[in-house]
Amino acid sequence: MKFQATAIVAFAFLLSVAVSPSRVWSDQAVAESTAEIDVFGEGKLVVPAQFKKSEAQSRIIEHEFSATAGEGDDAPMARVTMMRAGGGVEANIDRWKGQFGGSDKKIGETEVVESGKLKVHTVKVTGEYTETMGGGPFSGGKKVKRPDYAMLGSILVDSNGRQYFVKMIGPAAVIEAHEAAFKKMVHSAGK
């Protein structure tokens, strides 16, 4: 009987060492991100685990992830895209706003946040999204109207004026579900 009690105490001690708080914290930190994306050597986007790596749908996209709301293959999904770009902050934000229409169109105020050496400009637009199929934003191609869509778009500008675009576009419910994670990712990029 005494042997059993000693064995139980020894087992409990080994179990507590094997699942120490530092080990659990380390595993949790790894589980909370899927990637780190360098932004001009002046910051890193730590991509949250809920954004799953996916194949880029265009050659100009450097990194693409998907975000879903719900479970299963038919769960609504949004695209999260990342790429270097140019053309000016205001001109690009105006172009993004112009991709939305409809009577329910809403444009949020552009937020500007300093994050280390990066300045992060973020805007949210909702309404009917006009997606260009088979072409980029400046080329022809079939236009598809997507009602009840939303976009969170950020332009990260470094100390040399270079711009890095991060956008999440998809059904409004998906954007709402992941808005806090998206903003945390872009706002902490320069830290």
TrEMBL record:
Domain of life: Bacteria
Leader peptide range in chain numbering: 1-21
Taxonomic lineage of the native organism: Bacteria, Pseudomonadati, Planctomycetota, Planctomycetia, Pirellulales
Keywords for this protein: Signal
Protein name as catalogued: Preprotein translocase subunit SecD
